[in-house]
Amino acid sequence: MDKPVIVGVDGSDPSLRALDWATDEAALHGLPLCVIHSQAWGWYEGYGPTFGPDRSALRVYGENLVGSAVERANRRAAAVKAYGELVTEDPAAVLTRMSREAFAVVVGGLGAGGIAGLPLGSVGLAVAARAQSPVIVVRGDERHLRRSFRRIAVGVDEAEQAHPVVEFALREAELQSAALDAVHAWRCPAREVPDHPDHRSDSERHRALAEDALAEALRPTARVKGVVEVRPQAIEGHARKALLDVANTADLLVVGARRRKSHLGMQLGPVNHAVLHHAPCPVAVVPHA
Predict the structure, then answer these.
(1) Domains of the chain, with CATH numbers?
(2) What average pLDDT does range 158-180 have in this prediction?
(3) Are 255 and 129 in contact (CB under 8 A)?
(4) Which of 16, 134, 284, 288 has CA atoms 20 to 30 A from the CA of 164?
């Protein structure tokens, strides 16, 4: 059975935009769509849990929300097999668990309990840090959500870890008839000290190394030569700035999951955090091999 696109909904406008985006993604790949709503979503995003007689009303609300979401998906793409599930499990936990058998997990850029100034909801951030499938956080204005730029951007890190990230971005570009901009950021420490005696030659060496690393990471793109326009960009500077700049005119920004363990569990790296909170378009976080 094909792995589904899984989308978490909480009734907020951002989650409905995520639902629409996930429906289009399922149609693009010919995959089923699974709509998930957790009754625990409200308290997870900042509201208190309900323990009194209103728990039955909460369940009815959840069932109606899931049913309406499935109907919305069916109206948007009749060919997509859409179905829904109402769960009581912690939303981040259930989406993370279901990611093991998902093509991708899709969440909105801000949950129903979101706080102004925190552009990414806590559920989305937790899932992006732990999921085993790609996680797509849907954000941006209508130009980006309509996929009107015909352009996919991918951030390329170390070549040996980039394969699943590049493959995901390449498949998206191929199915959407979009160009693929592959960005690899590099820095030259000597160049950042203006009076360093050898900063010019050192800079040229770092640029050459970056271009070689980018070319190696993009070897899988050879299979779509003539089908997808691949545009490598070795950019000097901070990775977060390079990625946010290229995302301005992209329908989707794809990055690898830079995860690290801490006393709080799995955490994303600073570049992942920057693009998830500030990118002007949807962001796909793809686990490294």
Answers:
(1) 5-138 (3.40.50.620), 145-286 (3.40.50.620)
(2) 90
(3) no
(4) 16
